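Q: Please design a sequence for this.
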């Protein structure tokens, strides 16, 4: 035996040194076609790997519950024509529908036609819409839209997205409101503050830009549901899923919602599901 070397002795505990063995791939559970992705320990790499917020079954369940809660909801803005709806929607920016509905009856009595609005200057309209906020910009948009509708479209609000977007003060949200609520044309999904907030809470999108949120929703919501779905989220945002301290305990979507700002939950919270 070489000098200075002694053979390894058994441990006092009786346990011998462990010999590293190569890991064998785990067998896939019966009925599963694909094995889960494994880490070096043989466990799934991500505990939430099986959860897909955009799974068709989950989307269908969300739509089903919204249909039960709000089966026949429509636009809350008071109007009797496409033009009145267009004006009311422009005025609703950074304001509430309730406040706009207090202003528009007298406004439309005073100026009953689009031609009457087109004959005004923005300064003349400002006192009538002051209480809706940002009244200078809104007056300029309403009068500008009226003049263009009269000059370019014969006094009729256009019923396509391309032409509506040429009107002052009209972006996709306003155009979608008019097309969907008056003309019953589904060209997109209305993304207001409620739709923005709730679609993120439900993990239907991770975007913050309204146009990107709309594109995300259009990909996962059936086209025939676009108009009603937006109204349902708006009503849900007013009644239960409010911005501060949502009423989760009363919400029919609670057990399929993992929002980070829930006030009460029976399911796991996802930190990225937030407004």
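A: Design:
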């Amino acid at each position: 035996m070489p000098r200075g070397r002694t053979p390894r002795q058994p441990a006092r505990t009786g346990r011998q040194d462990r010999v590293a063995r190569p890991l064998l791939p785990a067998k896939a559970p019966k009925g599963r076609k694909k094995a889960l992705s494994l880490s070096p320990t043989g466990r799934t790499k991500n505990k939430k790997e099986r959860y897909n917020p955009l799974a068709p079954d989950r989307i269908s369940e969300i739509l089903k519950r919204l249909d039960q809660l709000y089966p026949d909801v429509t636009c809350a803005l008071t109007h009797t024509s496409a033009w009145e709806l267009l004006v009311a929607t422009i005025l609703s920016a950074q304001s509430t529908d309730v406040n706009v509905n207090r202003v528009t009856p007298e406004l439309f009595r005073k100026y009953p036609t689009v031609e009457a609005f087109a004959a005004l200057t923005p300064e003349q309209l400002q006192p009538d819409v002051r209480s809706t906020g940002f009244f200078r910009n809104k007056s300029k948009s309403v009068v500008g839209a009226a003049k263009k509708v009269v000059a370019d479209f014969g006094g009729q609000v256009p019923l396509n997205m391309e032409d509506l977007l040429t009107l002052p003060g009209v972006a996709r949200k306003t155009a979608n409101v008019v097309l969907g609520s008056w003309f019953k044309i589904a060209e997109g999904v209305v993304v207001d503050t409620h739709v923005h907030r709730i679609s993120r809470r439900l993990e239907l999108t991770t975007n913050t830009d309204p146009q990107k949120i709309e594109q995300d929703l259009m990909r996962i919501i059936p086209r025939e549901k676009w108009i009603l779905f937006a109204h349902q989220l708006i009503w849900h945002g007013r009644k239960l899923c409010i911005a501060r301290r949502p009423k989760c305990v009363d919400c029919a979507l609670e057990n399929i919602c993992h929002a980070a700002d829930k006030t009460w939950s029976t399911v796991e919270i996802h930190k990225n599901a937030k407004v």
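Q: Thanks. Anything notable?
A: The first helix runs from residue 56 to 69. The radius of gyration is 29 Å.
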